Fold these 2 entries.
Entry 1:
Amino acid sequence: GQASLLDTFDGVGRLGDGTPLDLLANVGGARDARAAAAAGAQGVGLLRTEFCFLGHDSEPGHDEQVAAYKGVFGAFPGKKVVVRTLDAGADKPLPFLTDAAEPNPALGVRGYRTDTTSPGVLARQLAAIADAAADSDAIVWVMAPMIATAAEAAEFAALCAGAGLQAPGVMVEVPSAALTSRHLLDQVEFASLGTNDLTQYAMAADRQLGPLAALNDPWQPAVLALVRATVDGAAAQGLSAGAPPKPVGVCGEAAADPALAVVLAGLGVSSLSMAARAIPAVSAVLRSVTAEQARELAARAEAAATAGEARGLVRAALPALA
Ligand code: PEP
Ligand code: MG
């Protein structure tokens, strides 16, 4: 009921049958991180590092970067913090990385792709992350945005190794990455689904355009199928390597929708990262279902013909949302 949705989160993400599901926070800097820790987040699933340096005309220096990252790590001693390397793009330009004259910025040189046009920036960022991590008690993972191919994943992993960073990962936010996650996960240790961009690219609908909001809906069955493909690819990679599947989390806005969080859990993701204020409501609804019920709802949502049908049938099946 309503009262339980307003409860504060007790720091343990799980389904009703005890199946664990880490509930992490999306943050843009130290202030967000402290608020997320106070709200009980189990760690940070997405540190959007570009938010630390918005408005900078030039690349931030090493010490400035180390200080920014340490401010976040310090809020989560002993906990996981996933740092996303700079994702300058149309929606958040960084003058030292972004070419404002690109005709089609969403399809342009953004995210990991800026490593080719601005060589060295990424390696220097990884060095600063490594120094900040070495001087903190957080468990630091690093991931690259806008990875489209296994070759890019391999390059990023090599850069991380060069910086002494142990746990490289990739964001899955381009449909090609979702469809080839098996090969990406041969190169890196984890994947994190960025459903904001994954939806934009699956539906060919600019996420910034209000008139396209109905297309830009992560309940679209095509988006759910891409989530499924990513998780299936991780399972296949694990099988072929004779190891457990590598973790696949979600760090897009979809994770903050309690009904969709149930579907994502049912599709097999292992963590959800969201704005910290969304965690209590998501936690409450996750605890109202078993893993088996989540899997059933996920299958029904994926089989729906439309986003509205998927959303409607899942919400109707969740008394906690009534
Ligand atoms: C995403 O694309 O879903 C994501 C988490 O990254 P951002 O919103 O920063 O592009
Ligand atoms: Mg993104």
Entry 2:
Amino acid sequence: MAFEGLTERLQNAMTKMRRKGKVSEADVKEMMREVRLALLEADVNFKVVKDFVKTVSARAVGSEVLESLSPGQQIIKIVSEELTDLMGGEQETIQTAAKAPTVVMMVGLQGAGKTTTAGKLASYLRKNQNKRPLLIAADIYRPAAIQQLETIGKQLDVPVFSMGDQVSPVEIARQGIEKAKAEHLDFVLIDTAGRLQIDETLMQELSDIKEITQPTEIFLVVDAMTGQEAANVASSFNEQLDISGVILTKLDGDTRGGAALSIRAVTGKPIKFTGSGEKLDALEPFYPDRMANRILGMGDMLTLIEKAQQDFDEKKSEEMITKLRENSFDFNDFIEQMDQVSNMGPIEDILKMIPGMNNVPGLDKLQIDPKDTARMKAIVLSMTPQERENPDILSQSRRRRIARGSARPIAEVNRMIKQFNESKKMMSQMSKGNMNGMDNLFGQ
Ligand code: GDP
């Protein structure tokens, strides 16, 4: 769970403060000591912590705060405001060029999530802004990168421009933009090469692409799990390329907060989006105030409401019911259903967005292991399209091949297919109004 330790420690410090009717300078000092430790432990950059503590302390010991009727509440408000400020204050959105297509360069270290995020951004632009994007495959070094982007493009039904790995990335980018112009597309998203570490050749190549393509946005994709190291990486990329914004990925993991809280202060560049899952719709605009409230455990109702609206797809649900009734529910539908449910993210994360839920005992036990769904998905994805549509043909030899392809034991493959068949039977009976289908659920 993201920010868990940080939230807990900050809440402890705040709760003590909230209870006090009268607050002294010494109380503020004591609280700020705890806040400082909490931030350092969350891997926030040392200098950022120092400045933050100084600013909050200076505001908190002002006479208008200490002598007010609710000094504890006021101080909590100050902490929240300053956290918001630390992350940039206002939300910053994606810029568009005066003349289409708007060029966006995606840069970052290998594994940060650059290629996936390029896909997510394309999907976001189309879904939320009604734009027509083109993905450009300009990472010619990582063996599977081009294919990965093409697969993502297919999944999203977004065009991908590639020229293989024998043409220079600058040329690929140039020709991609020409194509977007000719086809009157609104955005091009250039997936550039990453390295394990920052190196000069890479930076030179990125500078060359920048010079030729004149991007409106250069988004650096960084992995939130790397803590304040993410801020260092951002600093280096910014020095070399003058990036325009950061996309912070893997906020669904148990990141401690160091990246989210350090990046803006260290680089001066805003976080514009966050990624919170492997799926292609797991991208959200970054709102500093909402993030501050989430870190403080004060709930994030706005995001929760937006998520619920986005994810509830009534038409799809009806389609599923019809399929069940006609007994034509197959593995493709199965995956789609799984995605719909897990679209909203881990259930415990959703509940924690509700103010006050953070402290509910037993919430941590309410977990659906995302690894289980990921494993099932891996198995289904190793099936051929024909097998997915027609599970009856899954012979032993096919099952062995699927087990090898998904790197799961054959017993697990068998179990999953059995479960699928049983639930299909049960659901089909239930959808026809026959509740006896429930018996199958319990293996009777
Ligand atoms: P690249 O080398 O920077 O292009 O990285 P990829 O796009 O290939 O991503 C590396 C891995 O991180 C892949 O397994 C992605 O599915 C995963 N990934 C990317 N973004 C996220 C995210 O927001 N959350 C999670 N959990 N995984 C992510």
